[in-house]
Amino acid sequence: MQSLYRNNMKLLSLLLLLAASFNVCAQKYVLKSPDQKLRVEVHVGDSIRYSVFFKEQELIRPSVVSMVLDNLTLGDQATVKKAKNRNYKSVIHPPYGKSAELIAHYNELQISFTKSYSLVFRAYNEGVAYRFVTDFKDSVKVKNEIASFKINGSPGAFYPETGTYTSWEVPYVEYKSVSDIKAGQRAITPALFAYGSTGIKLMIAEADLFAYPGMYLRKEAEAFSGDWAAYPAKTEMGSWGNFVSVVKERKDFIAKTAGKRDYPWRVIIATDNDADLLTNELIYKLSGPSAVKDQSWIKPGKATWEWWHDAMLPGADIPSGMKNRNTVLYKYYIDFAARHKLEYIMIDAGWSNVYDLKKPNPDVDIQEVIGYGARKKVAVFLWCVATSLLTDLDQNLDYLKGLGAAGIKVDFFDRDDQEAIEWMERIAKVAAEKRLMVNFHGCAKPAGLQRRYPNVVNYEAVRGAECSKWDYTANPRHHLLIPFIRMAAGPMDYTPGSMRNRQKETFKPVDPGLPFTQGTRCHELAMYVLYDQPFAMLCDSPTEYEKYQDIMKYLSAVPVSFDETRVLSARLGEYALVAKRKQKEWFIGAMADWAQRDLKVDFSFLPDGVTLTAEVYRDGKDADKNAEQYEHTTLNVNNRSVMDLHLAPGGGAVIYLHP
To answer: For residue 541, how far is the Cα from the chain centroid?
Structure first.
């Protein structure tokens, strides 16, 4: 019996030892969102793998997380040193945006490994994210990062495809199933995946991007993988106007960076309510806090702008058009802005030499123009090429500041490798030091820089109204995709405001000349409510706007920054009805795709005992044929009121509520 007992004890000890060894080799950690709807499971063994669940449905199957450095692979045969959890909640007060305050509430898991690195996971109610953190003494080269997203099942996809690392103004290619996407096909982020049976939407993005290349997605056999442009080895000037830095050769690594740092967040947003996508601020919340202490000089606003309509002013008493860009012409735009309380004029390419911005166009006395604007209380943004600005960033920004410019529009980066991302960081930082605002164009999508440097008041990185000059891609379907997908990354300079509106059957691209847009006039007006654009263009000709003083009343009043946003109803790619408040005024915008819609506005969100005047701009009864037709009516509403809105194909409506 004693011998049997000893043998059993030896067997038990062996089993316990094996179990302990297995636990060391394959440890499991679970992290849940504060509302318990999202769950991340992390497995650490020979490799690190994570999976993501939403309401118990697995969205991301076990997927590898790793980073290959020049002398070490993070995540390979990882040994856990310690793991700790924390719960965090705070209130963020953005200087501008969709809401005056944001709640950042998350649960966090930090797994520290031997060899001086950690992996941090966060679970918010809006989504989950992870990032590497390293604590090395010396700088490192990142040869590659393995960010795998094994999407479970066969959801549909809204996949902004690209074959290059140079453009972010691309349309969404819609797939009924991810299995239809060809292996190797690359897309920019954010990209969205939609489960038709459950209504769940899954978005993949990134946040807090600094000193590192931007992330793309690439379709693999069984997953989507992060993809990055390698570090440039050889560049030369070329492409547009021979002023773009074009990469001819690349290194065998994607980043060279400090050994002690936080890497960008890999972000997974999940919801079964499309409306949540319109207000999702997870990328902003994940990004670093502002480095600009005094933000009083950062003033978002609307701008008149000459480029989209080729500076043509039909009916004006002065010569106009691109060949007549001169001091008199820009004063005309300033007078228009002043009459309608627009804060800015955006002066695009042509005011100076594109290669040397200190060589102004002799027909444009830019100091006189800026001084005239100052007297009229209209500030000026000036366009420039990124490479020209960077030849001597400090000196060039001093020159622009000396002219009296309030901000700059920096164009044609056409790259998002590490070097180009660092260009954008430097411009934002030095511009902030000199109290200049920045609007980035021809650039990578926003991924957190706008929080650290709020003087970056807008980004392009969206297929915008300019494409109406060339093709049919900027259409109402596209208009109802970008606020749900692209806008999650941050503000977007779509440049709305067209007064030359057409239905699908009558639209055609026009360039050069006065272009048209697809969708109704009220569809276009609603973009000022639905789209996040702290620096917003009025893209059309001042002489066209002056024909419609009732519309100019609305365009003068609608803010670019709000205190509160409420999504009343919405469906990805089909329609959206959104209400935004600024102090005691409300602005409601409705937009539809190519299908006509009937929506109901319930004003129960208004406070008790308050009656407001509602100025309603809606599609006219024949707007399905004449997209420029609209009706403007006025009535009183309170929190017991309900209003029916009929939207024509490609239609829209706006309601301006004021005391």
So the answer is: 27
Kindly give the pairing relationship between strand 344-347 and strand 379-385.
Answer: parallel
Find how far residue 544's CA is from the centre of its chain. 30
Q: What are the CA-CA distances from residue 536 to residues 299, 527, 529 (Å)?
A: 12, 10, 11
Q: What is the mean pLDDT of the chain?
A: 96
Q: Domains of the chain: which residue ranges? A: 25-272
Assess whether the previous peptide bond of 190 is cis (omega < 30° from 0): yes
Known catalytic residue at 411: yes
Single out the catalytic residue among 161, 411, 416, 544. 411
Give 240's pLDDT tier (boundaries 50, 70, 90): confident
Element (H, E) at 518: strand 517-518
Please name the helix (run of DSSP H) or strand (run of DSSP E) that holds residue 110, with its range, or none.
strand 102-113
Q: Is residue 466 flagged as an active site residue?
A: yes
Q: Give the strand pairing for 191-194 and 379-385.
A: unpaired
Confidence (pTM)? 0.95
Helix, strand, coil distribution of the chain in percent, nearest 5: 20, 35, 40
The residue assigned the tokens 């106007």 is 241
With a CB cutoff of 8 Å and minimum separation 6, the contacts of 282 are 124, 126, 127, 129, 207, 267, 269, 488
* Per-residue b or e along 244-256, where b marks 16 or more CB atoms closer than 10 Å to that residue's CB: bbebeebbebbbe
Please, which residues have CB within 8 angstroms of residue 492's CB and are 6 or more apart in sequence? 458, 459, 460, 461, 462, 464, 482, 486, 531, 532, 533
As a whole number, mean pLDDT of residues 35-59 equals: 99
Tokens, residue 310: 């080729």
Residue 633: exposure state from Cβ atoms within 10 A (0-12, 13-18, ≥19): exposed
Q: Based on the number of CB atoms within 10 Å of its own CB, is 261 exposed (0-12), middle (13-18) or buried (19 or more)?
A: middle
Selected catalytic residue, list 281, 466, 532, 615: 466
Non-local CB neighbours of 525 within 8 Å, separated by 6+ positions: 551, 554, 555, 589, 617, 652, 654
- HSE-up (13 A, CA, CB side) for residue 232: 17
Beta bridge partners of 124: 106
Nearest to 458 by CA among 563, 583, 574, 560: 560
Write down the residue that tokens 């997380």 correspond to.
65
CA distance 596 to 581: 27
Please report which residue ranges of 448-578 form alpha helices under DSSP H. 449-452, 476-479, 521-530, 542-545, 549-557
Q: How sure is the predictor about 26, in pLDDT bands with cuts at 50, 70 and 90? A: confident
The DSSP call for residue 214 is: P
Q: How many CB atoms lie within 10 A of CB 83?
A: 16
- CATH tag, 25-272: 2.70.98.10
The secondary element (H helix, E strand) that includes residue 501 is strand 501-502
DSSP 246: E
Strand 437-440 to 407-411 pairing: parallel
pLDDT tens digits, one per residue of 357-405 = 999 999 999 999 999 999 999 999 999 999 999 999 999 999 999 999 9
Q: Are 589 and 568 within 8 A, CB to CB?
A: no
> Per-residue confidence at 16, pLDDT binned at 50, 70, 90?
very low
Helix or strand or coil: residue 551?
helix
